[in-house]
Design a protein that fits this description.
The protein has 210 residues and is α+β, with helices and mostly antiparallel strands. Helix content is 42%, strand content 18%.
Length: 210
């Protein structure tokens, strides 16, 4: 759990300085049967490594009591990495305008109540290395252009700030959303070591399409 411990340590440091509060919840370690199934399904070994101490993981932090500024990481238990998201299959069956490949979407991280991060596992094809971001209700998922390793590195760099995934999409597409404006405004106030240009450079170096 190298990346997860690094995220915890980073937030713990800021909590000691009085900059934020955070909560973490470990689960039972992943069992050998789950490890075997993940390997058989060719799920990234990086996930198995991070899940070695906890089969899924939850952490969130907040700047103040209203909790409007904060962040969250909510990694799915391994069983959800082995099955397509059933709600999306139903939505695809009912809505022909949905990207029909979403029926093969598997959830990896549920960073907010209305957003999802996952990968595609189409029949007879190895699971996609790329991770994708989707807002609940959207008919498609946006390519984050990073693999599991890149995702964890950017999660650490972003301090899992709410909707940091949208920030990556903005950088990739040359757009500026309200989420990115908030990210750029608030991150330096809370984390003295945050640098926007370095954040952008790190993401560009990790993109799979580069």
């Amino acid at each position: 759990m190298g990346y997860i411990h690094n995220i915890i340590n980073s937030l713990d440091k800021e909590e000691e300085l009085g900059n934020l509060s955070f909560d973490e919840r470990f689960k039972k370690p992943i069992n050998n049967k789950s490890i075997q199934l993940l390997n058989e399904n060719k799920i990234s070994s990086k996930i198995i490594e991070e899940y070695s101490e906890s089969d899924g993981f939850f952490i969130n932090w907040w700047k103040d009591e209203n909790k409007k500024i904060g962040g969250e990481l909510n990694l799915s238990p391994s069983k959800f990495l082995l099955q397509n998201e059933p709600t999306l299959k139903t939505e695809c069956d009912m809505d022909s305008e949905m990207d029909q490949e979403l029926r093969y979407f598997r959830l990896f991280d549920v960073p907010t109540m209305n957003s999802q991060v996952g990968f595609f596992a189409l029949p007879n094809i190895e699971p996609s290395q790329n991770l994708y971001f989707r807002m609940v209700g959207d008919k498609w998922a946006s390519d984050l252009d990073v693999d599991i390793d890149g995702y964890f590195k950017m999660a650490l760099a972003s301090k899992i700030f709410f909707y940091w995934q949208i920030v990556l999409i903005d950088i990739k597409e040359g757009t500026i959303s309200d989420e990115t404006k908030t990210f750029k405004k608030e991150m330096p106030k809370i984390f003295s070591d945050f640098n926007w240009d370095e954040f952008v450079a790190l993401y560009q170096s990790l993109r799979l399409s580069k």
